[in-house]
Records
---
Amino acid sequence: MTARLPLWRPLKGKNTNRQNQPFSLLILNQSKKVSLLAADTTRYPDESKYIEQFRQRLEQVEASIRQAALAAGRDPASLTLIGVSKQFPAFAALAACRVGIRDLGENRVQDLLAKKEELAAAGEEPHWHMIGTLQRNKVKQLVGRVHLIHSVDSLALMEEISRRSQAGGLVSDILLQVNSSGEASKHGFDPDALPAAVEQARSWQGIRLCGLMTMAQLAENPDETLPVFTRTQALFERLAEQQGHPAAWSVLSMGMSQDYLQAIRCGATHLRIGSALFGPRPQA
C-alpha cells in the first residue's frame, strides 16, 4: 500500500495549465464518447460557483479535522480524507479533484469505473476507494483498478479477490468490514469472527490485509457512536498484536459526515466524508 497522503495536496504538472477551462468543455475535448458531464451542466449550470462552494466546505471540514486531531493528541497529517462522491455526477468528482481532493470513494463498481474513466480523460487520477457492498461477480472488473477495497465482508469475497488478483499478477489492498454496531441491516464480520478471518487472509496470495472498516449507527447525538468506534479501535489493536504488528496493518476506516469527529477521537486513519463536502445528494 502506498504511503498515506495528507488531507489534500496542490495540483502539479500537466493539470495546472487547464485550471481555467470549464469542466464540461474540458471533458468533451478529451473524450470522443458522450460525457457524463454533458448532462451535469444542467444540474450545475454555474461551474465556478459550485467549485467555490466546494472549496469553502472543504476548508470548513479541514479546520474541524485539524482541531479534532490536535485535541486528541494526533497529527492531522496522519489522516486521509476520502471524498465520497457516490450518487454525485462526474462533475462533482472532478470539482473535488480541482480543489485538491486526492482520494475518492464510490459504493458501486460501475459508477467507480465510469467516473475513473471520465476523470482520467480530464487528466485527474485520484486514488479510488471501493466503500460499498461488493458482489463477487463484480470483483473481476474492480481488481487492479482501485487503490483500496474497504468493504470485504466475507471469506468468500476475500477468496474471490485473492483468486482474481493472482490471475492478474496483482496484489490487492483490502480492509475487513466489521459490524461493530451489531445492527442486522449492516454488512460485515462479527467481531468474534475476525481473528479467524485475519488468519485466513494471511494464508491467501494476491491480497494484502491493511486494516478494518466499520460504520456506526445513525444517531441524533453523534457521541452515541463512540462505543462503536472505541470497540473497533480495540479490535484493530488486538488484531495488530495477533499478527505481530505488520507494517501494512495501518488503516482504520471509520467516520462519515455526521460522525467523523468522533471517529478521529477513536483512532480513525481514513475518513469517508460525502455530504459535508459535496453538499446534499441529488434526488433520484
Note: Residues 47-71 form the longest helix (25 residues).
---
Amino acid sequence: MFILNALFNFKGAFSIYNRYKVMFLFGIRNTLIISLSATIFGLVIGLFFASLKLITIQKHDRILSRLFKYGLKILANVYIEVFRGTPMMVQSMFLYYGLRPTLGWSPWQAALIIVSVNTGAYMAEIIRAGIQSLDDGQYEAARSIGMHHALAMVIIILPQAIKNSFPAIGNEFVVNIKDTSVLNVIGVSELFFQSLAVAGNVFRFTETFLVTAVIYLILTLTVTSILRIIEKRLDTPAGFIGASSSFSGAFKVFKKGGAT
C-alpha cells in the first residue's frame, strides 16, 4: 500500500511539474541568481570584516590608535556574532519589514542585502581561518622587501587564503541555495515561494513539495559536483599557476619600483 501510494505521489508530482514548469523554472532562476550574487557579495563583506578582526595591536601604538583598532575589532566581532547567532528568517523580517518604511527597498533588494550580509558573517570566519592557516613567513617576506600591510594582504595573503578556503566558500553557496527558501516571507519569488503558489492552485501539497525537494536536491548535487571539479583543479600545481605568476610579477614590479 505504501509503495502504491508513493508511486501515485511521484506520478502526480510529475504531472504537476509538467503543468507548472514555467513557474518552477522561474523560481529556480531567481534562487540561483540570489544565491550566487549573495555569495559573491558575502565574500567581499567577509574579506573586509576578516581583515578588521585580524588587526594587530602593537605595544608601540599610540593610545588613540589602540582605541581605534579595538573599536574596529569589536565592530567585526559584533557583526559576526549577531548574524551568525540569529536565524536568517528573523533577519529577513527585521531588515525588510522593520526598515522598509525608512529605506523603501524592494523585496529583491532586501533579499540580496539580507543573504549577502548573513553570508558575510560566515565568510569572515572562513577567510580568517584561511589567513591564519598560512605560514607567517610569507607575510614577513613581503614586509622584508618593503610591502606595507595592505599591499601584502591583497597580493600575497588573501589570494592564497581564498584558495585554501575554497571548499568552505563553495559550501556557503550550496547553503545559500537552500536558505533562500526563507525569503518567501518577504515575497521574493524564489523556488519555495513559487512552490507555495503552485500548491495553492492545485491543493496537492505532498506532490508539489516532492517536486520542490527533488529540484533542490538536483541543484545542490549539481553545484557540489561542479565545485569539486574546481577544487581538484585548484589542488593541482597547474591549477594555481596564474596566481603564482601574479605573485612573482608583483614582487618584480615592486622591486623595480625602488623598494629594497
Note: The chain has one domain: 13-256.
---
Amino acid sequence: MRLCIDYRELNKVTVKNRYPLPRIDDLFDQLQGATVFSNIDLQSGYHQLRIRDSDIPKTAFRSRYGHYEFIVMSFGLTNAPAVFMDLMNRVFKDFLDSFVIVFIDDILIYSKTEAEHEEHLRQVLETLRANRLYAKFSKCEFLLKKVSFLGHVMSSEGVSMDPTKIEAVTNWPRPSNVSEIRSFLGLAGYYRRFVEDFSRIASPLTQLTRKGTPFVWSPACESSFQELKQKLVTAPVLTVPNGSGSFVIYSDASKKGLGCMLMQQGRVVAYASRQLKSHEQNYPTHDLELAAVVFALKIWRHYLYGEKIQIFTDHKSLKYFFTQNELNMRQRRWLELVKDYDCEILYHPGKANVVADALSRKVAHSAALITKQAPLLRDFERAEIAVSVGEVTSQLAQLSVQPTLRQRIVVAQLNDPYLVEKRRLVETGQGSQFSIYYAPWKYEMYQDLRSVYWWRNMKREVADFVSRCLVCQQVKAPRQRPAGLLQSLSVPG
C-alpha cells in the first residue's frame, strides 16, 4: 500500500522544476552488445529524499487520526519525479552511458560478459551504500539473460514488448466512451515503435477523440480496435542500433498518413508513422512522398547523423530530387534539411523487389528477417511471395515470385471466348458497312454496330478502339488539309 495525498491545490502554486526526464527509447539505444543484465528497484525511492525544513508545513494533511506533515518527499507532489531524477543522475553520473541506465528509482546494469557484470554490479552497490540509498531486495534481479525494464524486455537479441503489458491490451474490453478510447490509445501508443502503420490503423479511433465528434462505434472502429490488439501481440523483436554500419529506410505516403521503417544489417530498428495534417492533405503525390522521407530523417536524426543512409521509395521521380531544376519553396526548405545527411534516394517498383534484393545482399540475416519480423512476413504475403521455412535450426527461406492477380486476369482475357468475339466484331466493323468510310467519327460506327449487336460498355469500347486505330486517326477531319474558300462556279456558255 502506498500513501498518496491530494496535492492538486499545492501543485497549482508550485514553481515547476523543468529538469528533463530521459526519453525511454534513447535509454535502450545504449544496450548494443549487452548480454547480462541486473535490475535494482529502490525501496520507496521518494521517501529517501528529505524535504527542506521550511517546506515541511506545505505537505501537511489531516485524517481522522490527526494532523500530519511529511519530512521526506511524498508521492503526488508535482516536482517529485524531476527532483529525484536529478538526484539519481548526480549519484551515478560516472556510470551513465557506460553500464548503467537510470529512470527515477529504477536502475538497470548491463554488461557484455558475466565477469565484467560482476565488477559493474559491485560498483553500483558500493555507490548506493555511499549515498545511503536502499533497495528492495525482493524486487531486485541479478545476472539475467533477459530482463523486464520500463514495460519492455531486454535481451541480447534486442528489445521486445513486456508480455504482461501485451496481456493487458489483448484483454481490454471494447471502449464505451471517449475516455476509455484515450486510455487504450495511451497504452497502445507507448509501443507504437513496434507497430507498422500505427497511425493508419488507429485513425478511426483517434477521430472519435476529436472535440465535437459524436461517439459512434462503427465497424471501422471495431476493425481498428481488433487489428491494433493483434499487431501488438505479434510485434517483432527490434534490434538495438550499433555505432557502425549504414541504415536503410523504407518510406511511403498516402492521402491518410506517412509511414517509414528503419533497418540496420537486415533487422528492424523501429517503425514510425503519423496522420496527415489538414494542410498536408492538399499536397501533390511528389510532395507527400518527400514529406515521408523528411519525417523519417527528423524522427531518427539521432541515429542518422554522420551515417550512410539508403532511402527506398516507390515514387520514381523522387530519386531525381537532388538534380531537379525547378523546386517550390517547400521543396527547397526540405532540400536544405536532406543535405545535412549522407543519404541516397533509391526507387523500387514494389515491396517484393525491395525485400528480395535485401535478402540477396544480406544472406546471413535472411532467415532471421523472415522468421522473427512478423510485419515483413505479412509484406511477403501481400506481395504474393511464397515463403517456406524449414524445421531445422538453420531455417532456410525459399522465395518464388508468382504472377499477380492483375497479370493472371490479363493473360486469361486473351483466351476468353466472349472477349474474343467482341474484338472480332469491332475489327470487322471497321472495314465493312458498319464503318462509314473508315468511321472518322466513333459515334457513327457505334450507332451502326448497335443496330445489330449490343454488349455492356459497348460505346466506351468502340470509342477506345477508334482512338487507337491508326487509319481512323489519319482520316479524321482535323488531320486533313484545310478546305479552300467556297466560290461559285461559272456557268459555261
Note: The longest helix spans residues 114-130.
